From TrEMBL:
PANTHER family: PROTEIN TRICHOME BIREFRINGENCE-LIKE 41 (PTHR32285:SF58), PROTEIN TRICHOME BIREFRINGENCE-LIKE 9-RELATED (PTHR32285). Residues 84-326 form the Trichome birefringence-like C-terminal domain. Residues 1-24 form the signal peptide. It is a single-pass membrane protein. Keywords: Membrane, Signal, Signal-anchor, Transmembrane, Transmembrane helix. InterPro entries: TBL (IPR029962), TBL_C (IPR026057), TBL_N (IPR025846). It comes from Thlaspi arvense. Its main location: membrane. GO terms for cellular component: Golgi apparatus; membrane. It is found in: Membrane. This is Trichome birefringence-like N-terminal domain-containing protein.
């Protein structure tokens, strides 16, 4: 899965809100925000994870889990063609007063969600906040600004149905959960890594496509079909004049240290710096990205891809690794 240490890696969100800014287009021109490099910035991090008003899930809380280095907290994303304004929480709260934001997806969404809540909570002194969790849904509110930020933990987006025959992953439907996805001003979805899980981790027994059940199926193709199904839901159900819709691309793992010239290292254990420069020396997941872009291109309504793959590839230092919950995670 794609875990990142909390507070080491919140720029994805800043991109979202920049893209969401009304005049972002005119101030950033046609700059490609996703092409650039990580720059050391001594004024970072933007928040201290100890100051979050709620406990951070252990998986992401590298600092409390004993990670000794801190340099990984001090990198800022610098696009090649333009400068990003520094995230300003107070300004954000004013602009999003009375609004609601929804995240839906796997650990990438969860990670970004909690980083974002910390970022907002610590932006104004003594801000009152409220986080509640019911089932798979977390709801965070800042009453003073009537702002609501919700997370729906849904790792595959499409329906997973328990039947007498087994657990069926229905690639043609999102109706099981989609009732939770209405009434928001901004929505950010993602799914990826779970599509490639194998037993015993994979949470389904059969794929269902049309009226047919399959014991297995090409995983990338299944992923593409599912994103397409979600896209059809957007086309049929979302009023994009009221709701902005984003899809977060995926964030690859860092299992193979030979990719950055350290064949003797153990995955990303003890990596303390990003890859500098803008080019990842290892392989870029072109096939996967092509499948995702193809699925998104069939959606008629405006959906913005947050193309984070390249920028997160450079962050071999961003994962909890041995400072995550259960030891060596990528
Ligand atoms: C937080 O929100 C929950 C759910 O809406 C509510 O029941 C609870 O009273 C709130 N807590 C505070 C301190 O406002
Ligand atoms: C919301 O999602 C939960 C699963 O997390 C599901 O059981 C429930 O039916 C959904 N509610 C709506 C209104 O779709
Ligand atoms: C990582 O660093 C820790 C603490 O310095 C050390 O004990 C461990 O051997 C290192 N692991 C690897 C794979 O380099």
């Amino acid at each position: 899965m794609a875990y990142f240490c909390v507070s080491g890696f919140s720029p994805i969100l800043m991109l979202i809100f920049l893209v969401g800014l009304k005049n972002a287009k005119s101030c950033l021109g046609d700059c490609n925000l996703y092409e650039g490099s990580w720059i050391f910035d001594s004024s970072y991090p933007l928040y201290d994870s100890d100051k979050c008003p709620f406990p951070i899930e252990k998986t992401y809380d590298c600092k409390s889990n004993g990670r000794p280095d801190t340099q990984y907290l001090k990198y800022r994303w610098q696009p090649t063609g333009c400068d990003l304004p520094r995230f300003n929480g107070q300004d954000f709260l004013k602009r999003y007063q009375g609004k609601s934001i929804l995240f839906v997806g796997d650990s990438l969404s969860r990670d970004q969600y909690f980083s974002f809540l910390c970022l907002l909570s610590t932006s104004v002194p003594n801000l009152k906040t409220n986080l509640t969790e019911v089932g798979f849904i977390s709801t965070f509110t800042i009453p003073e600004y009537e702002l609501k930020v919700v997370l729906d933990r849904n790792v595959l987006l499409v329906d997973l149905v328990d039947t007498a025959e087994g657990r069926i992953l229905d690639l043609d439907s999102v109706k099981q959960d989609a009732g939770n996805w209405t009434g928001f001003d901004l929505m950010i979805f993602n799914t990826f890594h779970w599509w490639f899980d194998r037993p015993p981790h994979q949470p389904w027994d059969y794929f269902k496509i049309g009226n047919k059940l399959y014991k297995d199926f090409d995983r990338l193709e299944a992923f593409e079909i599912a994103v397409g199904t979600w896209g059809k839901w957007v086309d049929a159900n979302v009023d994009t004049s009221k709701t902005k819709v984003f899809f977060q691309g995926f964030s690859p793992d860092h299992y193979d240290p030979a990719a950055w010239g350290q064949p003797k290292a153990n995955k990303c254990v003890n990596q303390t710096t990003p890859i500098l420069g803008s080019k990842y020396p290892g392989q870029y997941p072109t096939r996967e990205m092509t499948a995702l872009k193809r699925a998104l291109s069939k959606i008629k309504k405006p959906v913005t891809l947050l193309d984070i793959t390249g920028l997160s590839l450079l962050r071999k230092d961003g994962h909890p690794s041995i400072y995550g919950y259960s030891g060596a995670k990528e």
